[in-house]
Amino acid sequence: GGCEETTTGIMRLRAMERDGALKYPVMDVNDAKTKHLFDNRYGTGQSTIDGILRATNVLIAGKNFIVSGYGWCGRGIASKARGMGANVIVTEVDPVKALEAVMDGFRVMPMDKAAELGDIFVTATGDVDVIKGRHIERMKNNAIIANSGHFNVEINMQELENLSRGKEKIRENVEKYTLKNGGNIYLLAEGRLVNLAAAEGHPSEVMDMSFANQALAVRYLTENKLEPGVHKIPREIDEVIARLKLKTMGIVIDQLSKRQKEYIESWSEGT
Fold first, then answer.
1. What is the CA radius of gyration of the chain?
2. CA separation (Å) from 45 to 51, 92, 136, 191, 261?
3. Which CATH number is associated with domain 2-31+204-265?
């Protein structure tokens, strides 16, 4: 068996499972609560901003900051950018996630419209062609574009090259593209994961939970005979990791009394 802790990795494995191509069991570490609620949200959020700042030293406050994708990574990036004073705009294709972004206080619009407003763009979707040539043509002069969601396919690099009459590396992990229309676009980390290429990735204080999930998932695989396919991390593993994490932080939480437990597990009371 195996374990997978990335969103895009799980997407591929589920596709293989649907097609009957997955021949062994895989533990879905990414969807464990102690993974995606922390690693994806807080880890990606912080390390993405870190990568942008290390590469550019740009002031984020007051900028229109476009986040493409409002999964847990996108939420983390949007939250951190807003915390630094940015005006955050979210683009989405999922109506539920788009609605969540609106209710979280962000503006939501199509990329075609956001392209005209953004100063900084970050993709976090796991899909291709999130930023295409037609978007780049509409961007402000000196817009910054970066990716924090997948490989260097979220920004269509070929279309960026086709629209440009020259490019120049002006800082480590910053390329200045001079467009044929006279504008400039700054691409970070060659369109690769900016939080890894231009920074150091997630802090160890959040990765420890992801690695704990990996370790306990391996043990679960060895102790249980699972059919080929993608399997969720049991809730018990999530709870063990969360309690251990709280302990390392010196935090103690309440426990249900016997009476409280009986009440919430009963159907004869409170109905």
1. 21
2. 10, 17, 24, 17, 36
3. 3.40.50.1480
